[in-house]
Amino acid sequence: MGLRPAPSDEDKKRQVLNIQRPDSVVETRFDLPVTAMEFEIVDTIRNNDITIVCGETGSGKSTQVPAFLYEAGMSLSPDDPQSKFLIGITQPRRVAAVSTAKRVCYEMGQGDGQSIRGSFGKGNIVGYQTRYETAGLGDNTHIKFMTDGILLNEIQGDLLLRRYSVIVLDESHERNLNTDVLIGLLSVTVPLRKKAASENPSIVPLKLVLMSATLRVEDFTKNEKLFSSCPPAVVTVPGRTHPVTIHHSKVTELDDYETAAFKKVCKIHRKLPRGGILVFLTGKSEIVRMIKRLKHAFKIEGSARQVSCDVGEQHIDPATGSFPREVDDDEYDGDDLSTDDVDSLKSSLEDPTIPPSSDNDNIPLYACILPLYSLLSSEEQSKVFAPVPENHRLIVVATNIAETSITIPGISYVVDTGRQKCRNYNSGTGVASYDIMWISKAAADQRSGRAGRTGPGHCYRLYSSSLYSRHMDSFALPEVLTRPLEDVALSMKAMKISNISSFPFPTPPDRSQIDSAVKLLADIGCLDLSNVERDGGDGTITKLGLAVSELPLGVRYAKMLLVAAHSGVLDYAIVAVAALSESSPFSSHPSLESSEEKERLPNDEAEMDNVDSNLIKEREKLMKKKRKWFHSSGDLFAAISAIGAFTYAGRGAGGASEEHAARKFCEENGLNYTIMARIQKMRTHLAVLAKRRLGTAKGIAASSGCFSPKMSPPNKLQELLLIQSIASGLLDHIAVLAPPGSITGEHPADIRSAYIGCRSPADKPLFLDQGSSLFNRDYRQLPRWICYESVIRKMTKDGSYITVMKNITPIDPQWLGEISRDTRLITFGAVVGTPCPIYDPDKDAILCSVTTRYGSHGWLVSPVRVVMYDALAAPETKSTHDYLPDDSFRWFARYLWEGKVIPELANLAQLMNDSTELITRKTPSTKVVSLVGSLRDAGVDSAAALRKHWAQNDEKFLFQCLKCWVKPEHHATAKNMWINAVQQNVNIWKKNNC
């Protein structure tokens, strides 16, 4: 039991806020261990800048601590009770942020537990914000739940977080990337706020609370770099007293753990007393297969169980949508269904009714089976919290989302396979792979704790105690050690953090990870590394990088939209980015989602054989439908065509009619309605973003914040500009069809169809995905130059692995050098004679063409125009025979006399006694030498430099040279033209510099 602390002087100033809780809540919260420690927790937080609350599973910390802080008046200023601050609570997953906010709102008597509403414009005491969804926020809000990505964006705009008095980082033990960066930033924010509060009475110190069930406290208490000025206090909250019996398997099932889990669930359901069953699997496809097998098993056994199987539609609403930038949700929970899973999905959606019969009244007659993973909609996820019908046993088949983020009521039995799906990222090659791996001991303990929330429970671990004790890691690796850092690195650079490697991460990432992030940002032009040796650090952010960092998108996608906005194809780029943010709309089997085509599972093997043959036919039909979308410009254009047709199909009908039309269109055309609907929501979100951040761009999205269902396909020019926009974000993902003999060694695929990546070793070939629009078994039909969105390892029939490229787009090397000119992927060589140098008014410089090579392999691409003076000064151009060191002044003189530099001299060429081409010939005349020498001696090879020389040194500069070039009869005209031009340009210089 916690004791009420002695009131301090500061406490006397504080106002205590009362909560009118529902009677049922008042009764149940006394059973929560954290309630007994309310005063100890509040007192520790109030008297320490940083507090760590370690509460075991079931202690109630996630719902009660925010209420404690509110009741203690910690959202009010002690000097001015009318001045209000926010108590901010972050969660690593959207489902947890939303469900916890709704629960806290209900417990505080402010909602019904299903939604959060407030008075118009004023909000509720409790509100929440996720990437797309906001509810209850307003002037009345004291407690704000959010995903960690939301707070990360806020801290970029205000490092002191002046709107908040307390920040609570819940589930800190998950150590995802955003949370670790937040902890590092907040370790700086807390002392800065404390100093600001001492200087300004209107500001209160910021309190930071790290809250977790299984936190390695020493990562924070012993991290001198992190909390050197204010070491954290620690409060430990005990868990519930309900015992959980752990049952380990005698032998670990290493291969078919799904079958082991299936058998264990069946045994529990047949023999053990009432109580829900929670099964932990690794992903969506496993969940679907398990639900199908459970239903089938209960039926063919003739057991007295009715299975009410409700997979529901696996769609994403705005609260749980996938998005390129934020990393706050499990992206591996929603793995694509393979063709082998079609029958699983099909049969799992059935709902057979079987007459019940049972002799044991304590064993439920029926089963209600529900899935749970992060990519389910909020509505589908909420079904696991609903009351279970009488005489039913709840069986939840879930990913690790059910491990700590949410609590499912009534669970008495946990079946733990001991696995989870992890996205492993190779910082050297850029290859991402989704691998099934063992969980940590901490995760295993969390899973077992799910069985003891409401009473005694049992956890059946499908692995041996030896594996648990000897082979499982104590804790999972922090995400910062396993994920790419480019998004976070760019945001940190925008915050003027010069050296990312010295940033106070709770667990510093490996230097190779930081180098990979910096390398990628430099490759796409967001960072400049030219002064690293002189200034130290990790490079400086470029203008492009600043613009990219202002868009809440992944760096690649943000650059694509910026380039597209500049090129006038933003509306099409929004569709492309929306498609890139989701799975392929062609990858599933939408025809099997139709309720009219749901069939009962066959009872014998002969019928199963019929299903297999029918499945093959359905696959063939699906492939035929898929091929109709194939596009010569690549996979993204196939998706763009399908998305445009999908949008047009349901236009204007409204409501259910529009959805019905869209579903029917998908069924008829081999598209996945769920994914298409998600893409549409992403498209809507990006259109709103375009209006807010890219409002000056051309197009419907930038002007109105929406998109037209009647948008026509891009024409040839728009297609080219869109391809360039896409490639601009994938500059380090350029590949070339490998020349014969360039790849050696044994490889499992046809080496003639192999590609070499611009940043990949020559002995690491890449291959087209067989589902790509561009895939062709005849290597002679393959495009030579391509860009790709990602690569992933795939197993071939013989069990070996190849690296496969996804979302492929053919490109033209003619413009590749130009779109990558400001990146470190380009290497410039000698100046070439053709095309001739030009004067560029926008750059105010003479530009010449130079030999250009791309990537690590030095592929020759079309010449790029660069500033001629810089090119001629470079060491590699000294041996060129085409140009001399002062030729930039020659070409400037020629274009000056031709009126292309100073507009007021546009008619000067008509008064000349010789052609201006004389100036750039190899054997110059005396007057050419005089003119060019004057410019060279004065250092004038731009309009700006000429104006400055006229204004500061000599307004008659070059006039004597001009006389030699003008016919005698035109001297007076030329003099007047010259005086006017000089005067106008001197005025321009004075206006710009005074």
From TrEMBL:
Residues 584-593 have a biased composition (Low complexity). One of its GO terms (cellular component) is nucleolus. Its EC number is 3.6.4.13. It catalyses: ATP + H2O = ADP + phosphate + H(+). Pfam families: DEAD, HA2_C, Helicase_C. Residues 315-358, 584-612 are annotated as: Disordered. It is an enzyme of class 3 (hydrolase). Residues 303-496 form the Helicase C-terminal domain. Residues 327-342 have a biased composition (Acidic residues). The keyword Cell membrane does not apply. One of its GO terms (biological process) is maturation of SSU-rRNA from tricistronic rRNA transcript (SSU-rRNA, 5.8S rRNA, LSU-rRNA). Residues 42-233 form the Helicase ATP-binding domain. Keywords: ATP-binding, Helicase, Hydrolase, Nucleotide-binding. GO terms for molecular function: ATP binding; hydrolase activity; RNA binding; RNA helicase activity. InterPro entries: DEAD/DEAH_box_helicase_dom (IPR011545), Helicase-assoc_dom (IPR007502), Helicase_ATP-bd (IPR014001), Helicase_C-like (IPR001650). PANTHER family: ATP-DEPENDENT RNA HELICASE (PTHR18934), ATP-DEPENDENT RNA HELICASE DHX37-RELATED (PTHR18934:SF99). Belongs to the DEAD box helicase family. DEAH subfamily. This is RNA helicase. It comes from Nitzschia inconspicua.
